Model the fold of this input.
Amino acid sequence: MRNRHFIAMHRGGLLSGEDHRRLMKWARDCAIHVLHLTEKKEDRRLTAALEVARRWEEGKASTGKAMKASLGAHAAARGFTEPADIAVARSVGQAVATAHMADHSLGAALYALKAVRLAGRPVAEESEWQMKQLQDGLPDRVELVRGIMMQKQKTMK
Done:
């Protein structure tokens, strides 16, 4: 069952529209923060998805457009061969999919951590950076997100 803290109020959950946009920003920031780990950072599907995510945050793009952009980022991931490139693209795809379901913000952060690990970089530093960004944007969500991410990290290889 989904956590009600990630379900929009208009759908019976506890997530305000403003907090949903903040989760999108956090997810997008997580994806952007690892974009440099791939030589594919200029892939139009990734840059377009990140732009749609930014526009959705501003109320200037529809959820449908965000979902199409997410599908594009995931299609890019399927075309890549390097594991770190794939993880970066998945992070972007999950970030923009946050428009549809706020839970996808967690996927963006987790795939970013996976990309860091696959690139041979310190995962703990990236995780701390992510939590700092969340603390700055949504301080009341930090412990909830940290707990869920720790659970999900155990199953993500």
